[in-house]
Amino acid sequence: MQAYQLGSQKFEGADTQVFGVSTDNVYSLKAFAEKLTLSFPLLSDFKDRKVGEAYGIMIPKMGMANRVTFVIDKAGKIEFMEQGAAAMDILGAGDACSRLAHKAAK
Question: What does pTM read for this prediction?
């Protein structure tokens, strides 16, 4: 999350919205966002984990979602996805957002 906060200018110029979704509860996410002084929202999928299930990223044995970064276009189509440790690197998502912005400008 800190990398996304520090690299927020990569996304601002591409007409995008950054947000995080976690299976942590609202109170934990609020404390985490305040600690890191995040300028983008963190959303909780704690109650029923429907978002994680809908995107196929739940780890059922652990009751939590895998770490994944998605870039979703304005029509709702997933344009880019990275899982695991690679999901923490903003370069792939930033490049995908830039490609989408370039495509939209045509």
Answer: 0.86
